Amino acid sequence: MSRARFLRLAAGATAALAIGPLPSRAASTRKEDKMQTRPIPSSGELLGIIGCGTWQTFDVGSAEADRQRLAEVLQVLFDAGGSVVDSSPMYGRSEAVTGDLLSRLHAHERAFVATKVWTRGGDAGVRQMEESMRLLQHPRIELMQIHNLLDWRTHLKTLRAWKEAGRIKYLGITHYTVSAFDELEAIMRAEKLDFVQLNYSLDDRAAEARLLPLAAERGIAVLVNQPFGGGGLLRSLAGAPLPAWAADIGCASWAQVLLKYVVCHPAVTCAIPGTSRPQHMRENVAAGMGAMPDEAMRRRMVADWPRR
């Protein structure tokens, strides 16, 4: 496949229940303050290139301070032009917390909610997905994914029926390890999918070899989990000075460097870093704005990041 073609394809208390939308801290009408978007290949619908994952970070109790902080995380995302919020039944209370916060913020229509089915058997899958809808407090999920390919043949039949019936808008598959890439590739080649979610970061670039080009060729949107290398890469860079070229692509932190490397790839639709801190969400969404690395800069980023 030619490069030109590739680029083309490419909370608990009563007072808590009364909370309405938070005041915007990132709201702006200036075009340069809104994040870039990418189209979902199967529909053309645009998504902001930075979203929010909820693994661990949204698995909290009813303490109002925790809920308020996470509500602000989502508000920052939406104000910046992002919309993707990704969860799963295996993320503890994250689906329930996400649903509660979206209702508090009156933000279900602003959110592109993605979750997953993670069980064996068709009936069990239906029950789990219906429970996810209840917890997320919305009668339709934008994206339902088969988590880590568990019993994917069974669930894919259900997802196609649900998509036809309008209960979900898109369907996809996920995994988070390189060891699953052969199976991901086989399914992507054999089945019609709207999305694939996979691991990809500056120090975990295996997806560049086959899966990202294949997603572009097959018209499959790509969600990137672990854009910070599961957190280990970001921690390894703590204290390391930013290279001089970081300013050339609008980066003021290593987190922004890592995110820009991921989202500038033409096959990537959206990266979904997880955070429970509004200040980190502000940092993340800023990586979706402004100048993006070109191919020469991407090569330099690979060559220059300090291995620890």
Structure description:
- With 308 residues, the chain is an alpha/beta fold.
- The chain has helices spanning 3-9, 14-17, 64-79, 94-104, 122-136, 152-165, 181-190, 211-218, 232-236, 254-263, 278-286, 295-304; strands at residues 37-39, 46-48, 52-53, 84-86, 112-117, 141-146, 168-174, 195-199, 221-225, 270-271.
- The strands form 2 sheets. It has an 8-stranded parallel sheet with strand order 3-4-5-6-7-8-9-10. Strands 1-2 form a two-stranded antiparallel ribbon.
- Helix 3 crosses helix 4 (94-104) and helix 3 (64-79) runs parallel beside helix 11 (278-286).
- The longest helix has 16 residues, at 64-79.
- The two termini are 35 Å apart.
Element layout with pairings:
Blueprint: H1 3-9, H2 14-17, E1 37-39, E2 46-48, E3 52-53, H3 64-79, E4 84-86, H4 94-104, E5 112-117, H5 122-136, E6 141-146, H6 152-165, E7 168-174, H7 181-190, E8 195-199, H8 211-218, E9 221-225, H9 232-236, H10 254-263, E10 270-271, H11 278-286, H12 295-304
Parallel strand pairs: 3-4, 4-5, 5-6, 6-7, 7-8, 8-9, 9-10
Antiparallel strand pairs: 1-2
Helix pairs in contact: 3-4, 3-11, 4-5, 7-8
Strand order of the largest sheet: 3-4-5-6-7-8-9-10
Secondary-structure element order, N to C = HHEEEHEHEHEHEHEHEHHEHH
Structural class category: alpha/beta
Computed over alpha carbons, the radius of gyration is 19 Å
Number of helices: 12
Distance between the termini: 35 Å
The overall pLDDT average reads 89
Beta-strand content bin: 5-15%
User: How would you sum up the major sheet?
Assistant: 8 strands, parallel
Count every beta strand, where a strand is a DSSP E run of 2 or more residues.
10
| Unreliable residue runs | 1-29
Give the proportion of residues in helices: 25-40%
Shape, please?
Answer: globular
